[in-house]
Protein 1
Amino acid sequence: QVQLVESGGGLVQAGGSLILSCVASGLTFSTYSMGWIRQAPGNKREFVAGISRNVETTYYSDSVKGRFTVSRDNAKSTVYLQMNSLKPDDTAVYYCAANPNLVSVPALYDYWGQGTQVTVSS
């Protein structure tokens, strides 16, 4: 059974930082690209960042480029999202997701975590 478990969300003031983690089990982690997707209330899911299975390629949405950094540790089956210079518009539930290929369309991801809430106050 595949499980993706996110952690690290919380409440932070605008301009602050958070690090999200996602630990995977039940799959061969190194054969999957990993993505971070967020969903704010009333909005559709939005791709935020992704990293290829071999760590060579990363991809970011324009809204977070330069502020967020995605990384992974295949030995720990863990993917991270370092979020800096947070804005109130970043408030959302953040999900990690897995797909064999690095894709930016949320619906194409095969496996999803339960999500972690990030709230940025102004």
Protein 2
Amino acid sequence: QVQMVESGGGSVQAGRSLRLSCAASGYEFSNYCMVWFRQAPGKEREGVAAIHGDESTTYADSVKGRFTISKDNAKNTLYLQMNSLKPEDTAMYYCAVRYVGYCYLGQIWANYWGQGTQVTVSS
């Protein structure tokens, strides 16, 4: 059974940092691409960052240079380091896995999703 559990969200002031974690189990973690999505109230879910099967990465323009996606295959854990946070980063953040080698951020689908962790950034 696939499980994905996010943690690390919270409330911070603009300019601060947070690191999100996603502990995954139940599938071959190292083989597939993984994505961090976010969804703000009243807005559509959007892809934020992806780490592909070859461990290359892709970022949304809105977070490029501020967020870093990484994973630890030995711990089956995905991370999202978020620096220089802005109020517009406020959203529920979800990790997800796709059983493919490359993830296009503009596609909003996954084989499995986590339950989400809330990030709130105040000005």
